[in-house]
Amino acid sequence: MSKPVRKAVLPVAGLGTRFLPATKAVPKEMLTIVDRPALQHVVEEAREAGIEHFVFVTGRNKAAIEDHFDMTYELEDTLRKRGKQKELDSLLADLPAAGATSFTRQQAPLGLGHAIWCAREIVGDEPFAVLLPDMITMAGGRKSRCLAQCLDAYARHGGNIIAVEEVRPEETHQYGIVALGEDYGHSFEISGMVEKPKPGTAPSNLIISGRYVLQPEIFAVLEKIEKGAGGEIQLTDGMIALSKAQKFFGVRFDGRTYDTGSKLGFLVANLAFAMAREDLAPALQAEIRKLVG
Ligand code: UTP
Q1: For 86-128, how does the pLDDT look when each residue is reduced to its tens digit (9 = 90+)?
Q2: What is the domain-level CATH number for residue 21?
Q3: 134 CB less than 6 Å from ligand 1?
Q4: Ligand 1: does its nearest atom lie under 6 Å from the Cβ of 5?
Q5: pTM tops 0.90
Q6: 17 φ, ψ to 5°?
Q7: What is the mean pLDDT of the chain?
Q8: Residue 229's pLDDT is what?
Q9: Is the CB of 136 under 6 A from ligand 1?
């Protein structure tokens, strides 16, 4: 039987250059999708999937993230005194249990692979999940979000798991792409991976989309890996090296992913999450109608 996955690594040390000037002093992961930081949506997805410990790889100017996942004594006290029980309950429900978070720093943004490697001491010798916090997911017909679907596949196959999504063939050169081996329907064996293939050379149109389950052996691989695309230490390069010794499986995520690290993705995510809320959808729909004439 495969070892259980208890910990999740959330790399939040990137500079968010696609979102300047908003991200000059505010971490991009703290920009709100409706009424909660993007990162809170991702932590909720991990909690729903059964994750018990959250490892945040942060950097300079990211202190707001640590504060967000801590108690806010003055605020809670004021809400209590003013009888704002609903707001208080919602704050407390979001708060991770004491000791359920760890924060470590990536001293320089050397790439996603390097950020994950920075979590090695906290993760230790057990399989772990990775959630890229700028990808926000919404459940589809299976009713579970992306990490829960990855963990179902992990229970079935073991090994390493990568969530994938389809893009149009002309977009494949912007992403990490997987090649299909044996196909089981919702999941499949990965027979190869390539980071940002040249146009027309991608082995499929399935992109690596931001949720992973990885075995701890990835850390030793990442320690030795050379800089790849963009002069950064790439997680995909680490996974390609590990795939020579271990199996990787893909999960076709049933649901939708929004890339909140891009301006358009962020705006669409706000609309989609607001439209999914009964308290906001009717009024928002009316406003959109006015805007688009
Ligand atoms: P991105 O490349 O999307 O994030 O990395 P970025 O570098 O912040 O964004 P832009 O392109 O400059 O706008 C995906 C995730 O990996 C983290 C980012 O914080 C983001 O959540 N990351 C990336 C790190 O933690 N460290 C890095 O060195 C690079």
Answers
A1: 989 988 888 999 999 999 999 999 999 999 999 999 999 999 9
A2: 3.90.550.10
A3: yes
A4: no
A5: yes
A6: -65, -25
A7: 94
A8: 77
A9: no
Residue 153 lies in a domain: yes
The finding on whether 14 has its CB within 6 A of some atom of ligand 1 is yes
Q: Is 161 in the pocket of ligand 1 (CB under 6 A)?
A: no
Name the nearest CA neighbour of 176 among 190, 187, 155, 156: 190
Examine residue 217 and state whether it is found in any structural domain, yes or no: yes
Exposure on the CB side of residue 251, measured as CA atoms within 13 A = 28
Q: Ligand 1 in contact with 15 (CB < 6 A)?
A: yes
Q: What is the CA(76)–ligand 1 centre distance, in A?
A: 32
Counted residue by residue, the chain has a size of 293
Ligand 1 probe mutation, 112, 117, 232, most atoms within 8 A of CB:
112
pLDDT at 142 (0 to 100): 76
Alpha-carbon distance of 262 to 135, in angstroms, equals 10
Amino acid (1-letter code) at residue 144: S
Q: How far is ligand 1, taken at its centre, from the CA of residue 24, in Å? A: 14
What pLDDT score was predicted for residue 113? 96
Token pair in block for residue 5: 């996955």
Q: How many domains does the chain have?
A: 1
When pLDDT is averaged across residues 128-150 and rounded to a whole number, the result is 93
CA neighbor of 108 nearest in space, from 120, 121, 117 = 117
* Mean pLDDT confidence for 265-291: 96
222 C-alpha to center of ligand 1: Å? 17
Residue closest via CA to ligand 1's atom 25 equals 13
The residues that bridge with 250 in the sheet, in sequence order, are: 162, 188
User: 221 pLDDT band (50/70/90 cuts)?
Assistant: very high
Q: Whose CA is nearest to atom 18 of ligand 1?
A: 14
Report yes or no on 260 lying in a domain.
Answer: yes
Tell me the residue range of the domain where 194 lies: 7-292
Q: What is the pLDDT of residue 122?
A: 98
pLDDT bracket for residue 220 (50, 70, 90): very high
Q: Is residue 1 part of a domain?
A: no
